[in-house]
From TrEMBL:
Domain USP stretches: 319-834
Coiled coil (UniProt feature): none
Record-given protein name: Ubiquitin carboxyl-terminal hydrolase
Signal peptide start-end: none
Enzyme class: hydrolase
Amino acid sequence: MAADLGELLVPYMPTIRVPRTGDRVFKSECAFSFDSPESEGGLYVCMNTFLGFGREHVERHYRKTGQSVYMHLKRHVKEKTTGAAGGAIPRRRNGKVFLDLELNRDFNGEDFEYEDEAKLVIFPDHFEIPLPNIEELPALVTIACDAVLNAPSAYKKQEPESWEEEIQVSRHARSLRQLNNGVRIPPSGWKCQKCEMRENLWLNLKDGAVLCGKWFFDGSGGNGHALEHYKETNYPLAVKLDTITPDGADVYSFEEEEAVLDPHISEHLSHFGIDMLQMQKRTENGHHTENNSRLRVSEWEVIQESGMKLKMVYGSGYTGIKNLGDSCYLSTVMQILFSVPDFQRMFVGNLQRIFDYSPLDPTQDFATQMAKLGHGLLSGQYSKPPMKSELIEQVMKEEHKHLQRGISPRMFKALVSKGHPEFSSNRQQDAHEFLLHVINLVERNSTGLENPSDSFRFLVEERIQCCQTRRVRYSQRVDYCIQLPAPIEAATNREELLAYEAKRKEAEENMGTPPEPVRARIPFTACLQAFTEPENVPDFWSSALQAKSAGVKTSRFASFPEYMIVQIKKFTFGVDWVPKKLDLTIDVPDFLDLSRLRATGLQADEEELPDLMPPIVGLKPSFKNMNSLCAPEMDETAVMQLAEMGFPLEACRKAVYYTGNMGPEMAFNWIIAHMEEPDFAEPLTLPSLMDPGPSTSDNPTGATPIGNSPPEESVAILTSMGFPRAHSIHALKATNNNLERALDWIFTHPEEEETDALSDMADTEPNDNAFSSANSHRYELFAFISHIGASTMSGHYVCHIKKEGRWVIYNDHKVCLSERPPKDLGYIYFYHRLSSS
């Protein structure tokens, strides 16, 4: 028999490999489905690639690769039998067959026993060889089988591979003596001290200087001022500001020229007001004070609908997702994405095509893993109602076990979080950030194909106005989510909040019992109003003045998406860098009309700002006299390099000037972008500083008109927000031309607003077809994600989705009909646009 088995395996010996260091053995889950050794058909592991396949997918892999030898793994799960005294009789066979195999069931392992079975299967004849079979198999096959059976989980093997093992502790970390210069770093609003860059910023741990990194370092821009600072001061250690978390931060040593570890990073950061230890304590415990703890318990019960007898639902679209340990942010996002028809059609509708054309390693293919997850959620294959016998058995034993198991997103999470410092960890994350991360991955992997994320895509029109010259600039950008502020000052129970705050402070001073927490109640209209209000533009450079000036920005919708994502900005940072969650409720409507946020574009009475780029920071123009500018300083070498390419000399001079003498490459890009302009080759001209443009003194529109007629400037601001002109004038007249009160008046007079809007529309030209119907701006709520906890770095996520006319709660692997969906406590809301008919 041994000779027969040896001869049988001879043709396949070149394809059988022994797993080497670095090889991952997928023996717990199929690459195309959620089948496992516990599934009815078991799991087939290729003895060459070590990929796992369920029964319905192993044939595809054989046909595509020609690999014939697979190890078939099957785990039989049984309840332990009880003895006469009621105790369990321990019995387990083949205990070491599935070493490190993770359980795919949600039950107490002590109540069950496992009978593990392994065998080699040769395709296409399905010839089976039971294992272990050491004496009859060739030595190479025996070694390979033993290595596969004892290999660790494909995902557990990655866990020890962390930066802490690769990066060394800096020799400067323990001896670092920080300067007592009183520097305190705020939690936001950073900019380079030398060039005012606002990205890729590094904090020097010696003196607290905030400076920019290298150009394109870490994927973002900078002018290398952090390195220059080291050369000037010899202060070696710096930490990247946007990488600071309770678990550490990215530290770089300029002297050692590599990323390093700082074991005292928490102490070093606290020297500048960044209290990581307090951040760790607060975020892990999930509360700040006893008051907050009591508050969060109520939030926990309301959002999860605890205490209610919720009815479990099964079938297509009602499959839960297991929590891998603080992975609920992933579960809620993916449940909602796969309730959108565009995602269903792209990944589940094209399932067979995606699987058939998947690469040799489908575990690393985004489309394959999206299709796998979508099919798992929508097929109903992993959400079957319990058998009648199981229910009867539960009643007889007076047990109440969760019969919903859900699917494990381990393979999907490993792929989409690969290379991401936050999502690849086991810490809780922000669901909003993960949502944008997935949309970005969909964009990158949909080149030339249908892009389902287009259903969330819309254009934002940004209007920036120079407050001194009143000139404007319109631009558009792509976005996927509208972020609404949560103005606490607009709370309807403001007096109650003030009384609570007074009692809380009194209790703290007297060491007394804290009062019952009070949650702010904010109208949704107040959130929309806060979004529409003009905001100041920091460091605004006016191309009309050729200098910095005050500027305001307003944003409107240039297009409306099929699905609107609305995020409530509930999270903020305190002065101690601790992320905090604003505790509030918002009366979010089921139906939303965004017609008032429609973009209007350049108006007839508006004058555009010149299309000029700001000069290089630090470049000081010299003057011949007080009335005109002399020729600006310019990199003549770059100008000549561009001229030698055949471009007009004056165009080259403008390109170098408007790119701030940043070099010929940047200037070349400017030339390519402006070649079609009619004044492309005209001489460079700069306006006189003595003639900055129209002012309030000589412009009749800027003066306060006689009587109670509203200033045209105020009317323009309101109309730029999307409000009708007639109604804007009415609001200003009713509030004595007070702009802030006029905004409040508009939002509190909807009936009159509609009447005036109709008359205003009759006096204006028709808009584009995209905005021809009011229904094109109307949306209906169909899902929302709620967060429980004090910050995005802790707590739990739950989502509610409206399916078949009823609300369903998805709480990890549990899926039930919702009795009281907590729509007022949501964090991210999803709306579907109503049809125009």
